[in-house]
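can u pls check wat happens w/ phosphoric acid mono(formamide)ester
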Amino acid sequence: MNSAVTPARRQLHPPPVPASPFPYHPGSLLSASDLTLDGLSHILARATALESADPLLRDRILAKRRVALLFYESSTRTRTSFELAAKGLGADTTLVSSLSSSIEKGESLKDTGLTLRALGAEAIILRHNSSGAAWLLEAETRLPVLNAGDGMHEHPTQALLDLRTILAHLRPGTETLTPETLAGVTITIVGDITHSRVARSNMLLLPRLGARVLLCGPRELLPDVAAMVGPGITIERDFNEALHQSQAVMMLRIQAERLAGLQLDLEQYKANYQLTGPRLAAHAPTALVMHPGPIIRGLEVTSGVADGLQSVILEQVKNGVAIRMAVVERALTASEQGGRA
Ligand code: CP
């Protein structure tokens, strides 16, 4: 009799899943899910404080500390804003890019990271074309690693700067976050969801604050798979219907570099998913228009909308510097303050 009961009991009480050891370093930011709501609130508050601080005092905070930027993929916004952020706090920065370094000769990510550590880097900001690269680099170097985008996986600082932008417009003055902070807010993410690390980090972050996230796009770029949805996240294929419900809309670029031969009918795509002035006016005349960049004008969004009154795209870029000052400061001071935020 016992032998018949035991397996059922095992099913009811599966062995506990071992806790992830990541991040190893309390200053690392690998995923948008690394941060507690208190940790997120602290970063938002520090972003505001550092943005308004006297630059001559601010640049003593990390004076002469060493930060390495390790970029295997091209970047304008993320790379420049991380560099300005670190320099704005007084840190020395060095850039290693895959096109002008020994990476071209075949040096591995591990050896590149260990080399940067031996040269005195105290934190590494990594953009890489492989999902999971930031986790590997952190495990090998045990330095604080800031994930500046890993393949199709995550881009946590983009989600943080997006959140700062959304809060400034929809919840002004809010810096202490709760599970209800964005209750009643619907945010639609539109386009190439499959390949978007920006979408994934926002999907991990926004529902924790009570926001409803709608994913919108054609099946080629947004398959009907359960992994795409979760608490607070649903798929809405009809763009006009999604817009109608939204207080903010995040437009995404089609990531041609990751399509791997997938052919899309771009005219059909534009007809269904391009954000045009008439579509915005008809279905979401007050929604925030967001885009992580780079924008492909005339494809996912028209120039008129990108430059229009509802666009907060350049605010997102500006918020990148403040948010990245806060996360670079956290990277280099977390262990001194003792503990993970
Ligand atoms: N949003 C973003 O990651 O832009 P870059 O690729 O220019 O850094």
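Residues 75-79, 149, 158, 292-294 surround phosphoric acid mono(formamide)ester (CB under 6 Å).
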